Amino acid sequence: MNRRNYSGEHKRHGLHFLALTDEKGRLLWISAARPGATHDITAARRDDIVRHLRDAGLGALADLGFIGLGKDTDSDDPVLITGFKATRATKLNPAHKQANQVLSAARAPPSSTASATSSAGAS
């Protein structure tokens, strides 16, 4: 069995890609294919996404899989904005929940469902 390409999250084999799109969902950049078990933040670090965004003078809205990315740079100017994650010890307050909802709505371009359904495969 090909364990490197198995995603425990999705319970199937596949490949992992990172993609940067503009606000209309148009593809700006896509990473090389990695094994499906690769975590988002690991792939982003290997592709040095933060440096590329900073060099281009761009910023990005990211999901919770990218929390902590970019914190290892010396700059106080974030180029990657993520939401807030609850832990066992701390729950999200109403302001953090609202910030997550706004970020989620801003991140999802109208075409995101089309790409999600086309990559799921037909039965």
Annotation keywords:
123 residues
Helix content: 25-40%
Instruction: Provide the structure class.
Output: alpha+beta
- Helices, by number, come to 4
Shape: globular
Mean pLDDT: 79
How many individual β-strands?
8
Q: What percentage of the residues does DSSP assign to strands (E)? A: 15-25%
Radius of gyration: 16 Å
Question: Whole-Å distance between the termini?
Answer: 21 Å
Order of strands, main sheet, comes to: 1-2
What is the H-and-E element order?
A: EEEEEEHHEEHH
What about the largest sheet? Answer: 2 strands, antiparallel
Low-confidence stretches: 112-123
Commentary on this structure:
By secondary structure, this protein is an alpha+beta fold. The protein has four helices and eight strands. A hairpin with a 4-residue loop joins strand 1 and strand 2 (12-13). The longest helix is centred in the last third of the chain and has 14 residues, at 94-107. The protein is globular and about 45 Å long.
What can be said about this structure in brief?
The chain is α+β, with helices and mostly antiparallel strands.
